[in-house]
Amino acid sequence: MSNTYVAPSRWERFKKSDFLYYFLHDKVAMFSFAIFLVFVVLALLAPWISPTNPYDLTSIDIMDSELPPSWMSGGEAHFLLGTDDQGRDILSTMLYGSRLSLTIGFLAVAVQLCIGVFVGLCSGYFGGRVDSFLMRVADVQLSFSTMMVAIIVSAIFKASFGDELYSEYAVTMLVLIIGFAEWPQYARTIRASVLAEKKKEYVEAAKVMGFRAPRIMFRHILPNCLSPILVISTVQVANAIMSEAALSFLGLGLPVDQPSLGSLINIGFSYIFSGSWWITAFPGILLVVLVLVINLLGDWLRDVFNPKLYKG
């Protein structure tokens, strides 16, 4: 009777992987991931779990404006964290705001990923003049800060097309602006990985077999560059959320009728010295905690994928 070998499934390999082992033995990583997962779930379920709909004008009463949190004098039980200057429930706007901020963060990183990976693969694989040209373009892009590019483009678009059209396409504009401003981070990292990978035997074997350059780049080299991509993506999500919040705070991001975390902080900033501190404080705390846990996860991933740094 012959014994037949059954290859373990992906789930079984994952359960025995070093990645899961290190994760389950790192309390900071587990806590950060749990907090981030809670934020994502709450954001996705915002239409169903939020006390009110901040987009529904019929459910908003201006007489409820600037009510303090429920545990303070003058607060009402159904407004747990108080209300803003328009009478919207702060808790509801935070749930919807985190949904918008996370959406912009992930989509902007997707734009960065597509552009940066393509440029990095082409630059590292072809080398020569292609490499020099693409890296000079990346250097020029890096010489401008993300915020400066975003402020200039947002201001021009807002002045050219008006507030109404800008409000309609604000989310798309922010995704494209933040995405195009940050792609060189991916390109330079992927290029360095490709330069190391293309000298290995499996790439030479693929060339000998007659495979074309796109197939070699995307099917053979790219899968071996996923570790740095994952680390960069984690950090870039946090950066994108912060960029959106900064632009919204400056009045160049999302309009007031689309409450992101940045626009919520902007709305309440003018009231913070009049005593209505909760309008800015609670969205600000949520933003800080969200960015912090994402950065902690990014640091942990960087250490795990670099054995020289990881100490267990």
Write the layout of secondary structure elements.
Elements: H1 10-15, H2 18-24, H3 27-44, H4 46-49, H5 90-126, H6 128-143, H7 146-168, H8 170-197, H9 201-208, H10 213-221, H11 226-249, H12 261-269, H13 278-304
Structure summarized in a few sentences:
The protein has 312 residues and is mainly alpha-helical.
Q: Can you describe this structure?
A:
The protein is mainly α. The protein has a domain at 105-255: MetI-like (MetI-like fold), CATH 1.10.3720. Helix content is 69%, strand content 0%. It contains 13 helices and no strands. The protein has helices spanning 10-15, 18-24, 27-44, 46-49, 90-126, 128-143, 146-168, 170-197, 201-208, 213-221, 226-249, 261-269, 278-304. The chain is globular and about 75 Å long.
CATH topology of the domain at 105-255: MetI-like fold
Q: Measured on Cα atoms, how large is the radius of gyration?
A: 24 Å
* CATH-level-2 architecture of the domain at 105-255: Orthogonal Bundle
* Sequence stretches where pLDDT stays below 50 over 5 or more residues: none
Quantity of strands, as a count: 0
What name goes with the CATH superfamily of the domain at 105-255? Answer: MetI-like
**What is the element string, with H for helices and E for strands?**
HHHHHHHHHHHHH
Helical proportion, percent range: 55-70%
- How many angstroms separate the termini? 44 Å
Mean pLDDT: 81
Largest sheet: none
Structural class: mainly alpha
Work out the helix count: 13
Shape: globular
Beta-strand share of residues: under 5%
Q: What's the CATH class of the domain at 105-255, please?
A: Mainly Alpha
GO cellular component, one term: plasma membrane
Subcellular location: Cell membrane
InterPro entries: BP-dependent_transpt_permease (IPR050366), MetI-like (IPR000515), MetI-like_sf (IPR035906), OppC_N (IPR025966)
Pfam families: BPD_transp_1, OppC_N
